[in-house]
Amino acid sequence: MGGPSADLNALKGILQKAKRIVVLTGAGVSAESGVPTFRGSGGFWRTYKSQDLATAGAFERSPSLVWEFYHYRRELVLTKQPNKAHHAIAEAERRLSEVSGGVRQLTVVTQNIDGLHQRGGSNRVVELHGSLYKTWCTKCRDIAENTDSPICPALEGRGAPDPDSPSEPIPSKDLPRCRKDDCRGLLRPYVVWFGENLHPETLQRADDALSECDACLVVGTSSVVYPAAMYAPALAARNIPVAEFNLEPTSATYDFMFHFPGPCTQTVPEALASITDSQ
Ligand code: BV8
Ligand code: ZN
């Protein structure tokens, strides 16, 4: 018979035996923390669709506008907290590693750039699309952590999402600049924009986690953006058990062994609760 099961005990049995669990996440895992998702209303900022600003072309044309957009998201996320799903995933990683001395592992492979998995306690995290809190110098290519709030004086108070916010372009010299001694190059957010390739070392880390995976949870993603959207279906095609946790079915649901409808702050902790119980 076609279609996924919602048999939580069957999933728990699989997870209790699994050695290399991968948790693939999207914006939905942070939704209940108050971080807007890309679908629905959350996908807009001023009069723009997020997708139209998350491109190299937009940055080329108006770095000031794109920096306002990312500054807004940096500041917004700093006011939010990890939720029960982030914590349950981090707790499962810790307990697995503790009881098995590292033989059993859980790795998060996230599309999110909000850093909430790490703030929730996860250590093994692959950020497929980069991070709001890293910068990338357009001149010397230096990648640096940056949690400054604001990231530069000129962006203080800028980035308000309402369409009629003042958006006098900030002169390039006052946008975030590289701190490497004599570089001073214009910084960009270290995120993967649409039309850009994912970074080779990131792809390698994701492939390493996925190649050993023997059980996969897919949490809060619409499975629309590639190549991230390809990972879970590719596992399912190799008969690796995949459990999807989402408010609603997605375009990928039919490929998966399990689908658990509902808010992931309820469904994910339930699924991971007994992960280290002896079988
Ligand atoms: C690339 C960083 C090679 C920036 C992001 C046509 C067909 C197919 C592909 C393409 C195409 N045209 C272009 C492409 C390629 C493109 C792509 O896939 N486009 C899509 C739109 C079709 N991909 C790329 O460009 C990628 N690069 O392909 O390189 C290449 C090179 C040159 C030219 C072409 C190709 C790079 C993609 C990375 C883009 N960067 N983020 C930033 O964040 O600003 S993508 C960004 O959007 C996110 O990272 C994420 O990946 C995506 C949003 O998806 P989700 O995370 O799933 O979030 P969403 O809001 O959609 O869904 C939320 C889900 O949660 C929903 O299902 C909802 O029901 C659920 N939910 C909500 N609340 C809860 C919940 N579930 C449970 N509990 C809840 N409480
Ligand atoms: Zn530089």
UniProtKB/TrEMBL annotation:
UniProt-listed Enzyme Commission number(s): 2.3.1.-
GO molecular function: NAD+ binding; NAD-dependent protein lysine deacetylase activity; protein-malonyllysine demalonylase activity; protein-succinyllysine desuccinylase activity; zinc ion binding
Cofactor(s) needed: Zn(2+)
A Pfam family reported for this protein in Swiss-Prot or TrEMBL: SIR2
Cofactor: binding details: Binds 1 zinc ion per subunit.
Superkingdom of origin: Eukaryota
Cellular localization per UniProt: Mitochondrion
SUPFAM superfamilies, per database record: DHS-like NAD/FAD-binding domain
Main location: mitochondrion
Record remark on domains: In contrast to class I sirtuins, class III sirtuins have only weak deacetylase activity. Difference in substrate specificity is probably due to a larger hydrophobic pocket with 2 residues (Tyr-70 and Arg-73) that bind to malonylated and succinylated substrates and define the specificity.
Protein name, per record: NAD-dependent protein deacylase
Origin species: Ranatra chinensis
